[in-house]
Amino acid sequence: MTQRPRVKICCISSIEEARLAVRYGASAVGLVSAMPSGPGPIPEELIIEIAAVVPPGVATFLLTCKQTPEEVIDQQRKTKVNTLQLVDSFPPDGYALLRKHLPGIRIVQVIHVRDRQAVEEAVLAALHVDALLLDSGNPSLKVKELGGTGRVHDWNVSKEICQRSGKPVFLAGGLNAGNVREAVDHVSPYGVDICSGVRTDGKLDEQKLAAFFAALA
Question: Which domains, and CATH codes, for the chain?
Answer without folding.
Answer: 6-216 (3.20.20.70)
